[in-house]
Amino acid sequence: MANTKERLPVGGRSMTRYDDSTNNEVKRSRLPRPHQPGRRTSPHIRGRSGRKLQGPSPARSKARLARAQADHKEARQERALGRIQTHRKSLSLLLLSDWRVQSIPRLLKFIGSLDRKPDLILYAGDDTNRFGQFSQLAKCSRSGVAGVIGNDCLPSDKIRFRGPRKWDLFKTPLVVGRLGILGVEGSTHGPGYVQHSEKEVDRHLESQFQSVLSGGATRIGIVSHPPPSGVLDLSMRFGLGNTGSTALRKFIAKHGDIVRFVHCGHSHLNGGQAESIGSTTVLNTACHDYRGSPGHVAVLSIEGDSLSHTWHEIPSGEWYVSELLVLQQVGYRRALALHEKGIHTLQDVREENRNALRSLPGVGDSHVDRWLNQAKAILERNIVVMDSPWRQQLISTPTICYDIETNLSMNHVWLIGAMDLRTNEFVHFFEKDNERALLRRFNEYLSERPDHILVSYSSCNFDRRVLLERARRWRLPTLERRIEKEIDFGYKVRMHLIGNTPSFKVKKLGVQLGYKFRHAHLDGFQVGSLYSTYESSGKEPNWNQLLEYNEDDVRSTARILDVVVKGGKIPARPPKRERIFVPDPPDDEGTPIMGMD
Rounded to two decimals, what is the model's pTM? Predict the structure, then answer.
């Protein structure tokens, strides 16, 4: 068979051809490289005519390159900008975030019950894996779902925002009518799988801002997992502090006249709240991650330059109603077990049914005796105080009721209220920043009353535990010894007060005994949060209001102590059916995840 090898001209090079018939190499002459349009050709290469082949001039090449780069940039911006055409005069946006353990079926049912179907659903990150590919959620709105991933998500979770009617706002900003929506994913500091520096967030926001402006946006919304720094960003999971983005806060300050809203999550403590930075509304829709915690959803309405929002709370369970729930140490599981035994009402809790009551798992004779006495007291509309040695001790010993206020980390005591029941004298020990001076003054106060016994009301030894730790921190052994003998009256009330009381919490029991609280809307967590905000940002709360709140707690404790110890008259409520919240079991793959924010 003929064997042929030939050198053929290829781009100025030669190839060798072998001819099988002669078995000789035949070489062809070397030819110049053909001219390629748009490519500069070296002036030293000569054509067949012997003339030098000249490329395009440098000026023409630069102009052509500039035009090509501009066309490429414009095409790239167009590809990186999502668009939703709408002719509606108003927009309805549904906002949610950090859907940790909350019920997805209940969320879908709620959205379906709205009078107006949302134009778009915005998700501000974390636990995106619970929604799969967001297909079900996308069907609940006219245009779909847009969002970002959070710091607890993996980078691979971004794929969940791919597909029809879904947008990853960090990658692709969105223009809905005249509204441009930017996206910030992950967080800027703290633990997490998705992190961006403040400089990166700053450059990213400015880039997306220019993209949506060129796309025709006249007002801006931002979907950001971290809140703006100092606004709804207080977190305490890994130490109390502000977890917001300073770059986002600076961007709002720079473009506040056009940025209408920021939808964020990340800080679970501030979920379900809204604040304003100038004309910009910040909405935090984060949810807690303990089972049974409700979901926070905001419906945002935008019409022209006006913006309004409404909050909705999505329950994560059902209320179980039973008359038996008023009995101490009876929850919904035990109430169900009692119903199975044929015990449905308080009239059924009587001596004839002792064996049925005793047959429940974990129930002893002490439980049954308590239930029998309590059922009788409730039906007779009485509240009975069971006698015990501590009652005689409190009757015969001078008493000081006290209550402390701390920050959320419980490592700084800034207020102590105390009341000497022998003289009914009330005093405050208040130091905004000097804990050591406060504890020294309180120690001197106790030293002047060496025979008095201290009484607090928390049912968890809160005041005792915190004060002992702080006394050791400041090396105050005298104060430490006094605190060790303190009595938590909340424990005693729970064990020895039998009857139909709404609650053993100091406020509810105090109200039942006729005490009028001046700031009933406040609780210990809110007071601690206000002080922690003062610690981190210097923003001072209404100190007089907090002092009055503390005084009310002390005086109501003294009222309860006086009635219970001395056997005063306790008004009782008629028996009624009580209810308890029963959380849903986990629905999808939504196993509780310990978050990072």
Answer: 0.59
